[in-house]
Each structure stands twice: as C-alpha cells, then as structure tokens.
Amino acid sequence: DQPQEPAVRLAALIDERLAIVTEVVRTKWNTQAAIEDPVREASLLETLRVRAATLGVSAARADSFFGAQIEAAKLLQRELFAQWQREQRGQFASVADLALDIRPEIDRVTGSMLEQLARVPASASLQLPRASTMALISPAAINMARAPLLSAAGT
Questions:
Q1: What confidence tens digit (pLDDT) does each residue in 42-77 have?
Q2: Which residues of the chain fall below pLDDT 50?
Q3: What is the dihedral of CA 78, 31, 20, 63, to 10 degrees?
Q4: Residue of 84, 71, 81 lying closest to 37 (CA atoms)
Q5: How far apart are CA 132 and CA 15, in angstroms?
Q6: What is the per-residue pLDDT for 149?
Q7: Within 10 Å of residue 130's Cβ, how many Cβ atoms?
Q8: DSSP-assigned states of every residue in the chain
Q9: pTM, whole model, 2 decimals?
Q10: Torsion angle, CA of 96/102/104/106, rounded to 10 degrees?
C-alpha cells in the first residue's frame, strides 16, 4: 500500500490511544496519582525499541515517535487535571482499573501503532487529518503526537 494509507491508520491509532488516556487521567484524578511514571515510560520505550528492530524500525525512530506519544499523553493529562481543578471537580463515580483494564488496552493500541509505523517510510511526505474527532483530546496533544510523522527528519 501507499505510505499515506498506513499513515492515516496510524493517525487514527494516535487518536484511539489518546482517547484511552482520557480514561487513565480519570483514574489518576480519583486516586491523585502522579501523571509522570518515568519507570513505566523507560520500560515501554525499551520494549518498543526491541520490537521495532524486528520490524526494521530504527531505535531512534521508535524513540522519537513513541516518546512523542508519551509526551502527548502527559500533556493531555495535565490539561485535564488543570481543567478539573478549575472546575473543582470531585471524583468520578466509576473508573476503570489502570493495571487490569486500561494499560492492556494502551499496550494493544501501541503494538498496532508500531506495526503501522513500520509500514510508513521514514522519508515519506505525509498529509494527516488536522484534528481528532475524539472528545476531550486537545489540538496541542494531537499536534505533539503527530509531529514525528510530519517532520522531514523522520530518522
């Protein structure tokens, strides 16, 4: 297929992953857990580097792309925390379990993202949808998550 096709699928997966992050932040809001999780982030990037190599994706490209996904997720979480603080929001009535429900779903989407990334040539010139259609996902988070796909230096 043309580079554009897996790139469009990858953009949809970025939206899907960020939509799942809205569930992460609801759980973290209720538990007042930290947004940053450097140990999980480092572990995830290391696992993805290994998997990327088997698909012919350089470690630098995997780090750039998935580092941006992690940063976009943290940006979205900070934005929602700030919004809910301004609104003096109480706890959510029901939230999914981070370890049992949410993280496995993020890991599934992340694996699909890696497979699509491998199908997009690093040098491809891409046009992606400008914004997410998912609720609660800010343009800033979308821009951050998609930036590695749109930069000419796709390593």
A1: 999 999 999 999 999 999 999 999 999 999 999 999
A2: 152-155
A3: 60
A4: 71
A5: 6
A6: 80
A7: 10
A8: --THHHHHHHHHHHHHHHHHHHHHHHHHHHHT--S--HHHHHHHHHHHHHHHHHTT--HHHHHHHHHHHHHHHHHHHHHHHHHHHHTT----S----IIIIIHHHHHHHHHHHHHHHHTS-TT------SS--STT--HHHHHHHHHHHHSS---
A9: 0.87
A10: 160
Residue type, 93: A
**Token pair of 139 as six digits:** 């343009």
Q: CB–CB of 6/119 below 8 Å?
A: yes
- For residue 127, the tally of other CB atoms under 10 A from its CB is 10
Q: Which phi and psi angles does 125 have, rounded to 5°?
A: -95, 120
